[in-house]
Amino acid sequence: MSVLTSSSSSSSRTLKIGILGFGPFGQFLAKTMIKQGHILQATSRSDHSQLCHHLGISFFREEREFIEADNDVILICTSILSLSQVLNNLPLHSLKRPTLIAEVLSVKEHARNVLLQVVPEEMDLLCTHPMFGPESGKIGWQGLPFVYDKVRIRDEATCSSFLHIFQSEGCKMVEMSCEEHDKIAARSQFLTHTIGRTLSEMEIESTSMNTKGFETLVQLKESSVRNSYDLFSGLFIYNRFAKQELQNLELALEKVKQKLLQKMEEQSSNESKL
Q1: How many other C-beta atoms can be found within 10 angstroms of the C-beta atom of residue 7?
Q2: How far apart are CA 12 and CA 181, in angstroms?
Q3: Other CB atoms closer than 10 Å to residue 129's CB: what's the count?
Q4: Domains of the chain
């Protein structure tokens, strides 16, 4: 694993970037890319033509036209659950020249494996995960982690220019293997979402006598449910380390429960002797 700071030198040029999947996260990234002067094009299952027109982005209803639009980079911003279907239906053989295929999914081994299976061998592959989103990154990306793995890179200039988008915004650039990412993310991201979703099932709400700790729990619940359930389930289904973390959480909760019950029995026994 290596870490680059925003002060690291990196060459950059204007890129023509095609965004595949123009949902909230794709829109969020697009605004910064436009601000930096990159040329953007997009396609999505939903019709975002009006929004794209407002942002100065070319929107394609037909995926073949999007693929043939001569992008330097195609950035995949689909959901984890739909990745395989979307890429298998994409006419990647229509790409006119070697192109950098990058993705921003929250699971990396699955994304890498699908890309290696589907994308033509002459295309470069870059797996990335911006560890922030529209909420946490709304006032800037300074100091926020951006994880990436150069799965198959021959055109270093294009790859460097794409990474510079995030580096120049002050992201902490972390080069890490897809496997290591998923192992860490299962304990951090998936566990966070799981606890947030559990609190949601408990229907916890703010009270008139909140402690700071409870306010943190309420905020965690609210931030978790703002993300789609597809994202949460994708973190579980396609990260092979997530199932073990879920078991670890269950075991830990059971241990805490047993310790409390044991303490209660001891206290009851002591009181009965008085």
Answers
A1: 7
A2: 26
A3: 24
A4: 10-176 (3.40.50.720), 181-262 (no CATH)
